[in-house]
Every structure is written in C-alpha cells, then in structure tokens.
Amino acid sequence: MKTRLILTAAVSALLLGLPAASPALAQTAASAAGQVAVPPLGFQERTLPNGLKIYTSRDTSTSNVTVQVWYRVGSKDDPQDRSGFAHLFEHLMFKATQNFPDETFDRLTEDVGGNNNAFTSDDVTAYHETVPANHLERLIFAEADRLGSLVVNESVFASERDVVKEEYRQGVLASPYGRLFSLFVPATIYQDHPYRRSTIGSIENLDAATIEDVRRFHATFYRPDNAYLIVAGNFDQAQLDRWIDQYFGPLTNPDRPLPVNNVREPEPTGPREATFYAPNVPLPAVVLAWPGVRYDDPDRAALTVLDGILSTGESSRLYRSLVYDQKIATQASSNVDASQQAGAVITYAIMAEDETPEAGLASLRAEAARLRDAPVTAAELAEAKNELVAGALRERETVEDRANVLGWSLINTGSAASADAEIAALQAVTAADIQRVARRYLTDNRSIAIRYLNADDQNPVTAQSVDVEAPVKVADLAPVGRIFELLPEAQRTPIPAAGPAVELATPAVETFTLSNGLEVYVARKPGLPLISARLGLAAGSADDGAKTGLSVLTAGLLTQGSSGRSAPEIAAQIEQLGAQLGASSGPDFSNVSVNAPANVFPQALSLMADVVRRPDFAAEEVERQRDQSLDGLRVSLSSPGPVASMAAGRVVYGDAAYGAPGGGTPNSLPGLTREDVTAFHASRYRPETARLIFSGDITVAQARALAEQAFGDWRAAGPAPAPRANPAGVAVAPRVVVIDQPGAGQAAVYVAMRSIDRTDADFFPLTLGNTLLGGSFTSRLNQEIRIKRGLSYGTRSNLGVRQDDGAFVAYAQTRNDAAAEVADLILGEVNRLSTTQPTQSEMTTRQAILSGAFGSALETVDGLGGVVANLALYDLPMSDLAAYVGRVEAITPDQVQAAFAEHLPVANASLVIVGDASQFIDAIRAKHPNVEVLPLTALNLDSASLR
User: Fold this and answer.
1) What mean pLDDT is predicted for residues 906-913?
2) What pTM was computed for the model?
C-alpha cells in the first residue's frame, strides 16, 4: 500500500488578493506548479562481463554515498509451500560471509554514522546502505562478499526464522487490519498469479523450510546477472570503477537459467465477493478492487493520475464523499498496485462507528461510476498532476532517494530512462484518458468486493490460506553448491580501510525578529528548488488542563475551515500548488509546516499563515474532527503497542499534565466544544511566543519579505496565558501493570520512567547512552532480544525529553508467552548502563551513529528545518548546530554511566505489559508479586490508577 500524507491547508484571500474558491487561483496555481522542473536522475551505466549491471551518479554536494543492490527476486519467486522465502533471505543476507562475522554490515554502516536496511516485495529484494563517503570501498567489498560467499548455518537460520515469525505476529496478527491488507486482499484479488501470496509468508511455510531449501534458494537467485548495483554520492568515478571490477568482477553465475516465472493473470469473468473475520477489529473495513495493469503498461500513467484524484488529500473524491460529506468512514483511500507482471486498482474504507460495510461498498462503487460516467474536472486533473510532479521532486532530494527511484524503474521496466520518462507521461494525461481507463478497468463486472469484520462465536477467525499453487517448485532450485563457513581470522580477506573523511558542513542560520515579537530563523540550502517553513507555537497537550485532547483537536481543526472556506476547498487550493501543509501538536508545542516547490512557495506560505491566524472552527467541523478522533482512538486501543504507550504515560506521570494521552480519551473527546477550541487558540496561538523557521532554497532577504507579508501584522487575540507550571508533576512510585487483551497477536512490553528536560546538562551523555541501549539496530537491547534470541522483530528505547521531565521508555513486542523473559532482558540492560561504563569501542561507534544521523537530517529541507526548530523551541543557541558533532565526540564513558545512575536507575522503572495475560501472568507474578492486572475493557486513561 502507498503511504498517503494527509495534506491539510488553508488560504488567505487577503494575502493572495483573490476571492474564495476562485477559478483564477486554481488556474494560476496549477500553471505555476506545472513549471516545476524535475531534474533527470543522471546515472551512468555499464555492465560487467558476468552480467552485473551498474549505475552510478556522482554528487559532491554531499559528504555521503549510498550503495544499493537490487536483486530480481521477490515473493512471487517463493517456491511452492515455501512462501516467505525471499523475505527470509533478506534477513539472512545480513549475517556472516567467509570473510566477516555476523552483524558486520551493521558495524560497517551504523558504527561509522551511516545506516543500512533492506526490503522485499513481489518482484524484488533490495539492500541499501548510506555511509560517509570515505567508507565506500568497504561497502563495495562487503556487498560483493555476501553475494559470493554468504554463510547460512543452522543457528543463524533458526534465529532469523524466529525473528520473521515475530515480524509476522507484529505486522499481521497484532495489527487490527494487518490480516486484511497483508493476507486477504492479495489472496482475493489475484486468482492465478503468485502475487496472491503474502510477502512475509506464513508460520506453517516458515516452519516447513529447511536449511537446504534456503541454501538452494540463494544459489538460484543471488547471482551477478540477476542484480543491479547502484552507487550515488560523493566519489571518484575512476576509483569506484576499479573497486567494482576488483570485488564484483570475479563473481560467476550458475550454469543454469533462472526458473521460468511469468504467470498471466486471467481476465475476470464476473464480479466476486468475499468476507473475512479477524480478532480485535475495532471498526469494519471494506475493499473494492479491480485487476489493473503491469508497471510498464502505458495505461499506468492515467491510472496513477486517476488514483491521485480519488484519494490524495482532503480534496480527493473518496475523502470528500465518504469521510467528509457522508461521514460513514473514518478513512478512505486508494492505490494503484502495479508490479512487473500484473496489477490492481484498490479502493478501501475503514467505516465509522455504527456504519455498515454495505454503505461503504455502495459509496466506493458510486465513485467508480462517477469516473466512468463523466470526465474529471480540469481543476482536479491539474491538482493531481501538480502533486505527482512535486512528489517526484521530493523523491530526488537525497542521493539515497534518487537511487531508490532508479531501482524501482529498473526492476519493473529494465530501463533507467523510464523513471525520467514517467514525469512526461503523467503530465500528458488528459481527462479523456482517465475516463477511458475507468471505463476499461473499473467496471462492475470486474470488481472484487471484500468485507472485513470482527470475529465472534458465530463467525470464527478466518484462517490464512497456505495451500497456494506457485510456478517455482523446490525441485526447480539450483543445487546447494559450495557451503561457506566463516574462515579463521588469519585466512580472511581483510575489509578495506576507510579513506580520508569528507567533512560535514553545517549551514549558517540567520535570525531576525518581527515587530510583533515573532522570531524568524533562516537556514539556506540551495540545490533542489524546494523550500520548507514551520511555525512552532507554545501550545501543547500539557496545556489541556482538564480537557484532554484539546491541543491536538485544535491543531487538527486549523485546516478544516479558514476564512469561510470548507476543508475540501482549502485542501484543493493547497494541493493545486503541489504543496504539503499540515499541523500537529505534542506535549509542549504545536507545529504548522509547509513544504512547496520554490516557484509557488510564497502562495503556500500565505496559505499557512491563514490557517494559523484565521481558522473558522465551525461547529460542524469540530464535531466531525472529534468523531474521527474517536474512531482513530478505537483503532489504537485494539492494538497492544499503542495501549501500552498510553498507559505508560499515566504510570510515569500519574495525574500530572504529561500523564494524559495527548490525543484524548474515549471519555474526554466527546466533551470538547467549539468554545474550548476557540479559547485555546486565542490564548495559545500568539506571535511573541512562536518561532518561524525557513529552510531550503531561500535567501534571508526573501524570507524577511515573506515573513513580514504573511505574519507581520499578526496580533494575539486574547490575553497571554499564565506560565505553564510543572507539567511533569511530582515523582510517583513505580508500578507493574498488566492489561489483559485476550486473543492479542502479541504482547507489548514497556519499561518506563521519568527522564530529563531538553536543556539538562546530561542531555548529551544520556542521548549517547540511549543510542547504545536501544537507539539503533546494533543497540544492546536489539542484540539481546532480537539477534541472539529471536524474540522480537525490533526493540528500541527513547529518552523522551520535553520542557519538563521527559519520559524514558524501552519497549518491544513479542509473542505472548515470552513477555516475562523480554521484560527481564529490558530491565537488565537498563540496569547495566547505570552500573558499568560503556567500552571505548561502544563509545566510538555510538558517537559515529549520532553524528551520522545528524548529518543525514541536514540533507533534506524538512530535516534541516526540524533540527533548527528543535533548537529554537527550546531556546538553545543556533551555535549548537555547528557544535553538535564536537559535543558528541567529547562525551566520556564515565559521564554516560553517571548520568544513567542519576537519572534512569532501574529502581525507578515501571513495567507495563499489554497482551493475552493468560499466557504470561504466572511468570510475571513470580517476579513481580505486586503486579496490577486489569482487562482492556476496563482501562480508564483519564485516571492515574488506570481504572
């Protein structure tokens, strides 16, 4: 499924000098955004004698380099009765080779300030790393070594299979809609094609796998002539070519072709329907889908624009009809799923409370009929195109972004040029094209309707189908061939040394203050024609008082009506610019942000100013937003992780302001009124306590003129509020709480306690210690819980700093029967940081991780703006930007231990576990006899007692 960013916006007729909903504005905005030039990717191409295709792009404006290897093997290639193999191998590829031990890839990337990851989809398994440029040779060596001499032994195989099972439980079983989108939708849409199997597979198929099967799978598909190597960033082309020839050149291919796998999906013979049941489904969901086209089909461009008209933003047809006008759905969206060999057009809705699936399906069918029966409007067409072109611009911000765009084009079309050609194809789509493809593909006779409902005694949980025919059989796989083992250290080919470091440059930040007290910060980043602005306001959930959820509701309503325009009208005008505008609220601050192509940024900033200064807060919009928030909360309260997170806030802070869930509770949200929202906005949204940050392709002079125009005459509407008093409250005694959710797919385990404020002198030692504990894949928690024991897909920790004492949390999701073991492991690792000093090696790697993450954040205009905003909102000097790396490198091991011992001793820690308590409560009681147990149905988030 694509990720949709809900675009929220407002427009100021006074600032633009145009009437409301003006066709002239739509035309001007559309034509302006249409002038945005998306630069070509600009990769060089060559092919080695062994068939490896190589694409490189040099960019000296960055200090980083990205290395990616895209293999033409995905879940469609999983053998019969072995679904999930391609994804399982994605995990195994991060283990040992004959020349380096397990987890070396993490050492080569995270430990030097970079990152690595991988993903598997229908047609591809891709591996990508981004590191400081002086480590390029090391990654070329490592990628070649794991292609040519991967070690797959019994212990690694068993451990990673367990990790994948936990990933399955977390993403499929524990998520309320995981079964729907991961299992049931593809299995229903595709009739013959292996796309109907889940990428992650099934527990049964994973258990059936043998180590010989896995080794044969690697021998079959992991070969030079089945891969693309992509390198982008700061490097010398001639030197890079020599390294690639040296390390990849000697690799050979098997003496047999790849298995034949090109199933053709049949044309539907009539409509189909299916109903599925799952546990803990808080709201019914419906899907209406149609078989679509392959990625390289000429009709994909028109279907992509059609998809944008259907579901991009709050002016889209699905949102307008199902969510806004009819109020029958809390969410409605669509997706064009176009893969190598087949595709689908998918629409879906998660219904609102008390609404029926039949109403949702009827409305989805009506929207499909509208597309067939009449051409889309010129404004809708221009808006969708502008959003797609602006999106393509954002997808090219970093070297990693550009490599990703190229990789997808190569996998799906085999052509590097197709990524650039796609922009022109989208711009050429007409209203007639959209109506034509709607009539061709979105017919009632081709439709597939799916209902997804909560299971009960009469309707038991629908089982995943695992008996699925696949074109590739285990017998088709290549023989195992040579079995590699890690060589003795003296016999290994050494990993190349790093080269000279490329210095990280931090931009200068200029500041000035408007006459109304608004502080403005400008961080210039020339290059791509993109500009970001964000306004930070001293208004957070800590200011809600007894009206829990008020700050978040107010921020959400900013874009739901402004200067007399409705929410869809506002959204349409911002989306016509190809801009993104949104508002949010956290514990201490609210933020309104805009990102737009440089040529339309002045209009976009005017829209942002109007959203902040002139929201309507219409009564019907307050009711609508409140109802949607309640539906969203119902979904969150059906999943163990969100429940544990909200309960942990109460356990740490009790009845203090920080203890209340920021988004509200089932009891608090219905009582919030328009008068509450209006008063909160008048009191808290004021220029003298706000910070405005510009970042991107903008000069100080341009920023000053735009700030004056948009915000210069802004004056607060009400008296200044009293200073916030101690939102963290007094320290409360630690607790052990179990929240019982029978049938939960996993247990969420949270260890939580009070932390520090952002300006505390121990911020940097604690930040580094947290990175060592649970801030990265190579952290201690992940090593102990995921890598060594396979008990979780991932374990993390967060320092949680705020203006007052923050909330430290360390957490994991695991199978229910392992909850007690995972809790012990987390508590033990937290305690170890308080009682022993990190090693110098750990210090060096964690310092590199922090410095590397900081450098990566500066690569995008939004990332740079976020870093500057963080300093500005906490009243920290802008000189901290340039001083950051030096301060990180100055931290010592004794400072880390002392800071954890003082601020985060394990004696202060509370434990919250949410899951099927019948599977772990005895083990918890044996170690924590004071445990409090309550059913999820009795959870009261308005009370510190949780009852």
Assistant:
1) 98
2) 0.88
